[in-house]
Design brief:
Elements: E1 5-6, H1 27-40, E2 45-47, E3 57-61, E4 76-96, E5 106-119, E6 125-131, H2 132-145, H3 156-169, E7 180-181
Parallel strand pairs: 1-7
Antiparallel strand pairs: 2-3, 3-4, 4-5, 5-6
The structure holds nickel (II) ion.
Nickel (II) ion is lined by residues 98-100, 140, 144.
Length: 184
Amino acid sequence: MIYPIYVYGSSVLRKVAENIAPDYPGLQQLVKDMFETMYSSDGVGLAAPQIGKSIRIFVIDATMYGDEYPELADFKKAFINAEIYERDGEEVSMGEGCLSVPGLNENVVRPSRIRIRYVDEQFVAHDEVYEGYAARVIQHEYDHLDGKLYVDHLSPLRKTLLRNKLAAMAKGKYKASYKTKLVK
Ligand code: NI
C-alpha cells in the first residue's frame, strides 16, 4: 500500500515519535509499505512520521548510488528504535531535499560520521558506524523521529529567505508529483 506523504505544516512532523515493541501489529507489512511509498515518490529515505505514524521507524534505500559510491551498493535497510549515540568526523555541507518539503533543496551542514544502535524488522540488534552519504541520509531520517526537519538546520539568513515559501506550503500551496496530505 502506498501512503500519502504528510507535508510541512502537518503537526505529526513536529512530534517526538515513540519506540515500538516487537509485537507491534502489522510491522512487516508496514515496513514493506514504507519502502513502496518511498519508491513511488522517488525518495532515498522515509520516516514513519512522514506517513502520519509517530513511531521510531525509518527506511533507506541508497542502492541506486552504488555505482558512484560502492559502499552504498547494498544499503537498503529498515531502522527501528534507532539511537544515534556518536557524531564526529568533519562538518560537511551538502544539498538535501525531503518528501515532506516538496520543491526545495538546500545545503545542510552535518557531521560526516555517526554511530547508531537500532533493531531491524526482525528485532535483531545492530550497532554500526556510517560515514559519508549514508551517515547523511540516516541523520536526515533520524531527525524526523525527533520532530525535526532539515530546514531547521539552515542559517538564519536562508530561513528568512525561505520563510514565505514555507508558510505558503503549510497552507497547502505546493506542488508534488506524489500523493500528499496536510493535517495541522
Ligand atoms: Ni525528510
